[in-house]
């Protein structure tokens, strides 16, 4: 007598899951190792179905100011974001950079600001993150399942800053990049909406713009608790004035903290990203 109600319950659960996930298929992650100048990185690899070769997104994660949170980082991508790319036929490679989580090692990306008591070295943060990203691009180009000249860089927060810095090196095979809320020096708890010495980072972005020839797409939300609404506009303006080629998108608010618009508000960026990748022939 209980078999039929139980079966119906399972159907209801299955339907709820299908509605929550949508029509896409979740790709399973493979774990691999990638050499970088600061040690071997653990990386997640997601591939769509089929033999390939596939265009590839190299994704770069953000950074917590808490050492314990940095050391506990495991898998930096949410399933729904992975599915956005894999259903378009992209593979994703998401390395955990040196100094974080499963990769471990020294915190080479520290700006040395010590809670903004000294002038931060954002060049070091950007450059070290870029080292890991370029090493990942080099690894991707050697994989039989990857299209070696169809690589897109995508980064969030400090990973976004590192992505801009990596793009400035014009790594072989990279056709463009996307920067979500890129920056460094924010503390939403102590100084919400006001980062540490943003003028220093503005100079870093200007320097990167002077050598960056790849097309870029930048996204910042109005209620970003790390940077606030105004500093990203100054960073983007300095970058493009120096010669950069970024299409700047300053959106309305996203959730309770716009710093997470990449995962919290796909409606604010998916249409523009679709146009961007189509224009790159991806």
Q: How does this structure look, described?
A:
The chain has an eight-stranded mixed β-sheet, with helices on both faces. The chain has nine helices and eight strands. It has helices spanning 3-21, 67-71, 79-86, 122-140, 158-167, 198-211, 231-241, 261-264, 270-279; strands at 29-36, 39-46, 54-60, 91-96, 146-156, 174-180, 216-221, 246-251. It has a single domain (29-279), classed as 3-Layer(aba) Sandwich (Rossmann fold), CATH 3.40.50.1820. Mean pLDDT is 89; it is low at 1-26.
Topology, number of strands: 8
- Specify the helix fraction band: 25-40%
CATH topology: Rossmann fold
Q: Overall pLDDT, averaged?
A: 89
What are the secondary-structure elements, in order, as H or E?
Answer: HEEEHHEHEHEHEHEHH
Total number of helices: 9
């Amino acid at each position: 007598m209980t078999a039929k109600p139980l079966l119906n319950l399972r159907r209801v659960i299955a339907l709820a899951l299908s509605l929550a996930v949508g029509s896409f298929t979740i790709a399973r992650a493979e774990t691999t190792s990638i050499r970088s100048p600061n040690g071997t990185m653990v990386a997640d690899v997601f591939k769509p179905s089929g033999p390939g070769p596939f265009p590839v997104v190299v994704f770069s994660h953000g950074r917590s100011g808490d050492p314990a949170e940095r050391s506990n980082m495991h898998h930096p991508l949410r399933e729904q974001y992975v599915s956005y790319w894999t259903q378009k036929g992209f593979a994703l490679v998401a390395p955990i950079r040196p100094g974080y989580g499963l990769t471990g090692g020294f915190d080479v990306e520290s700006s040395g600001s010590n809670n903004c008591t000294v002038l931060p070295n954002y060049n070091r943060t950007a450059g070290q993150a870029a080292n890991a990203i370029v090493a990942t691009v080099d690894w991707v180009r050697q994989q039989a399942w990857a299209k070696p000249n169809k690589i897109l860089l995508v980064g969030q927060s400090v990973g976004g800053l590192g992505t801009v810095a990596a793009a400035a090196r014009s790594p072989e095979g990279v056709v463009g990049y996307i920067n979500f809320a890129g920056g460094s020096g924010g503390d939403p708890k102590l100084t919400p909406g006001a980062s540490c010495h943003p003028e220093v980072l503005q100079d870093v972005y200007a320097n990167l713009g002077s050598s960056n020839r790849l097309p870029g797409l930048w996204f910042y939300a109005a209620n970003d608790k790390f940077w606030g609404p105004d500093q990203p506009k100054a960073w983007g303006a300095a970058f493009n004035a120096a010669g950069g080629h970024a299409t700047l998108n300053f959106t309305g608010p996203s959730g309770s903290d716009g710093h997470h618009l990449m995962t919290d508000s796909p409606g604010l960026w998916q249409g523009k990203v679709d146009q961007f990748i189509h224009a790159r022939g991806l």
